[in-house]
Amino acid sequence: MTTALDLITGAAKLIGVLNKGENMAADDAADGLVSLNDMIESWSNNGLLVYARTIETFSLVAGTASYTIGSGQTWNTTRPIRIISAQIRDGANLDFPVKIINDEEYYNVQDKGSQSPYPEYLNFSNAHPYPVIKFWGTPSQAYTARLVSEKVLSSFALTSTTVDLPSGWKRAIRFNLAVEMAPEYGVKVDPVVLDKADESLGLIKSAVLKTRPLLSTDPNFGQRDNIYTGYYS
Questions:
Q1: In the chain, N or C terminus with fewer CB closer than 10 Å?
Q2: What pLDDT, in 10s, does the model give residues 168-184?
Q3: What is the SS3 assignment for 99?
Q4: Regarding beta strands 115-116 and 138-139, do their DSSP bridges make them parallel or antiparallel, or are they unpaired?
Q5: At 144, which helix (H) or strand (E)?
Q6: Cβ atoms within 10 A of the Cβ of 79, count?
Q7: Per-residue model confidence (pLDDT) at position 50
Q8: Closest to 44 in 3D by CA, of 195, 165, 152, 160
């Protein structure tokens, strides 16, 4: 098991600001934690670095097409970064797929208030601070929405608590955090460290990519597959 302090200390040694056997000063450790969490939050925007997707269910209200989603919102959960897929489940526990459309496609829908036995499309408006999920057509009954989403990777706390990381993540964080921290100390990163940072991150992306489904397109909305992140955008 590993702690955040272990990762920060290891990164500091890679750029030569700590020697073997030395411990980090409290203020340097605090700065390193900021860099670590900033880096992890940034990685969350890359679908190939989100190693697990979240499956959740939410209640629809008959006649209501829009729902805010996030902590304390109508759909109370951790804010998603993107919605990967969606289904509508009826009272007989039958699931009906819902197509994900982007903002432009949703805005081009003329009759946004029309009702439908089952919603056919879902638009995820990634607004700040709270996103809005909009369905078309408006559900005629109180169905259940099942969403598969990607969310921000968990942040770290600078305590003695250990963290359980997937295979390869400890190495990737340590080498990439070294690159992240180097400018604060005014040091140049050794090319070997740069290579290992790129290599370790690439291995994580490859592992995640193997768990993703094959790309597909919807001819109604044109070619929008993203070969770099592996999902229909």
A1: N
A2: 999 999 999 999 999 99
A3: strand
A4: parallel
A5: strand 144-151
A6: 16
A7: 81
A8: 152
pLDDT of residue 186: 95
Q: Which helix (H) or strand (E) holds 6?
A: helix 4-14
**Nearest-angstrom CA–CA distance, 221 and 106:** 11
Q: Identify the CA nearest to 34 among candidates 197, 157, 134.
A: 157
Output the six-digit token pair for 93. Answer: 């526990």
The tokens for 33 are 């934690």
pTM of the model: 0.69
Low-confidence ranges of the chain (pLDDT < 50): 215-233
Structure tokens at 153: 């990777």
Q: How many residues does the chain have?
A: 233
Q: How many CB atoms lie within 10 A of CB 56?
A: 15
Query: Tokens 């955090």 belong to which residue?
Result: 177
Q: How far is CA 216 from CA 54, 211, 225, 230, in A?
A: 21, 15, 7, 10
Q: Yes or no: say if 95 and 116 are a contact pair by the CB < 8 Å rule.
A: no
Of 121, 44, 34, the residue nearest 85 (C-alpha): 121
Q: Which residue has the tokens 């670590």?
A: 36
Per-residue pLDDT, 154: 83
Distances (CA, A) of 62 to 70, 109, 133: 21, 20, 15
Contact 123, 99 (CB under 8 A): no
Cis before 113? omega within 30 = no
Kindly calculate the radius of gyration of the chain based on its CA atoms and give it in whole angstroms.
22
